[in-house]
Amino acid sequence: MKCGKWIVVVATMAVVPCAGSAQTLVNERTISVDAALEIATAALANCRPHGVPVTITVLDHAGRTKVVLRDDGANLHSTEHSLRKAYTALTYGMPSGEYGTRAAANPRSAGPLHLPNITTAPGGLPIRAGNTVVGAIGISGTPGAKGGGAADEKCAQAGIDKVAAGLK
């Protein structure tokens, strides 16, 4: 029995890294405030011709708000909804509407829908630098009669496209 305990101790020591060699600091890629402003401004310029005021939220890689642009006359709820769209896109690394489609297809996995800031509405997109999600954008305010979340998503993509060269 003593031999068995020693084998477990030695195996554990071999598998668990020593604290002295643990990485202390981590560098993570994220979106700058300048890029976030450029994305939001370009998205707003793309949405305005629809004649509907929207709110745009851009988050960094950790879900912190970088920019919120609320157009004159945008609905009160659009600020919260744009945040939720961006947060959903960031959290799941996919468009918020795509997450909504997946959630609707599998009603038994509705648990995440009860988490704060998750929505199934389209209009949120992850912002990627290569394969790394460095932020997200969410837009809210376009009514269904004028394209709804699909129109919001097109404006969001136009914003991302504005800085695409810097995301490579």
Describe the structure.
By secondary structure, the protein is an alpha+beta fold. It has one domain: Beta-Lactamase. The protein has helices at residues 2-15, 33-47, 77-92, 96-105, 148-162; strands spanning 55-60, 65-70, 124-129, 132-140. α2 (33-47) crosses α5. The termini are far apart.
Approximately how much beta-strand content do the residues carry? 15-25%
Specify the helix fraction band.
40-55%
Number of H- or I-type helical stretches:
5
Compute the number of strand runs.
Answer: 4
Q: Give the strand line-up of the largest sheet.
A: 2-1-4-3
Q: List the uncertain runs.
A: none
What overall form do the CA principal axes indicate? elongated
CATH class: Alpha Beta
Whole-number mean pLDDT: 90
- Secondary-structure-based class equals alpha+beta
Backbone CA Rg: 21 Å
Biggest sheet features: 4 strands, antiparallel
Give me the CATH architecture, please.
2-Layer Sandwich
- CATH fold name, please? Beta-Lactamase
Number of domains: 1
CATH homologous superfamily label: Haem-degrading domain
Give the topology string: H per helix, E per strand.
HHEEHHEEH
N→C terminal distance: 58 Å
